[in-house]
Amino acid sequence: AGCEKEPSSYMWIYILLGNMLRGIGETPITPLGISYLDDFAKEEDVPVYVACLHTIAMLGPMLGFLLGSLCARLYVDIGFVDLGSITITPQDSRWVGAWWLGFLIGGVTSFLAAIPFCFLPKSLKKPEEATNDKTSYGLLENTPTHISFLSDFYTSLKKVLSNRMYFTFLCCSLLQFNSFIGFITYKPKYMEQQYGQSTSKSNFLIGLTSLPPVGLGIFLGGLIMKKYKMNIIVATKFAFIMSFLAYVSSLLHFFVGCENYMVAGMTVSYE
Fold first, then answer.
1. Whether pTM exceeds 0.70
2. Where are the transmembrane segments (predicted)?
3. By the 8 A CB rule, do 90 and 71 touch?
């Protein structure tokens, strides 16, 4: 009865704002980068370049998991307490790793990586030998700056979502990312609970085994599209077949696991 409620921390607001700013900074890279590649590269080379772009994007989470594994080995108050006085180890359930260190390292790295973008020209000049049937360059060059941007955006969005091919691809992408994010989010915790691994080792194994194959698959997909010069219909069939095989293979996860722990009163009787 004499206990007082501890004041809640507002640090989550800083993390929320930091992630919001990071998202704002990262958003233009993919759409504008792909548009730039589509306009200035040869048509048969675009799939390879886009595949390289996405493959590199997959290396980021892999390195992030490895960095998280390293930070999880360090005590949360590193630099503020005497590490010799800590009696628990990373294998202890009470251990809290230096989760905040990854944000600092990632923030500094993102800042340094953003510096070269400041030296890009204000407007992009399209080569004379380029074809005139591509319209994404016009979107980059003639971006409206007045209030009509909202109406133009609504018109463009309506036109894009009314495209059945794109809308189907969008729904498939949402399903893929939902399953992939759930897989990445809960698999480390599953490994900790079922296989008795530390948080550090779980993150290390996830980063080393899950993400590199995805990046390799994206790169190989770009090479295959370049070699066989697939049009949109053939590419759609190819994507469907590969996705179907991936989903069938994922079903094998249902047959992998460990037996439940013997806990008196829950999995076994008290006798």
1. no
2. 46-67, 97-120, 165-184, 204-225, 232-256
3. no
Take residue 239 and report the two structure tokens written for it.
């994507």
Q: Residues for the chain: how many in total?
A: 271
Yes or no: say if 104 and 83 are a contact pair by the CB < 8 Å rule.
Answer: no
Q: What 3-state class would DSSP assign to 268?
A: strand
For 90-146, how does the pLDDT look when each residue is reduced to its tens digit (9 = 90+)? 777 788 888 888 888 988 988 898 898 788 777 766 655 544 545 454 444 555 555
Distances (CA, A) of 130 to 38, 134, 193, 209, 225: 11, 9, 57, 41, 21
- Per residue in 75-89, pLDDT (tens digit) is 888 878 887 788 888
Q: Which residues of 105-144 are buried (b: 16+ CB within 10 A; e: fewer)?
A: ebeeeeeeeeeeeeeeeeeeeeeeeeeeeeeebeeeeeee
Confirm if 42 and 191 have CB atoms less than 8 A apart. no
CB atoms within 10 A of CB 47: 21
**Locate tokens 């380029």: which residue?**
130
Calpha distance 7→13 (Å, rounded): 15
The phi, psi pair for 249, rounded to 5°, reads -65, -35
**Domain regions of the chain by residue span:** 41-122+144-254
Distance CA 102, CA 64 (A): 8
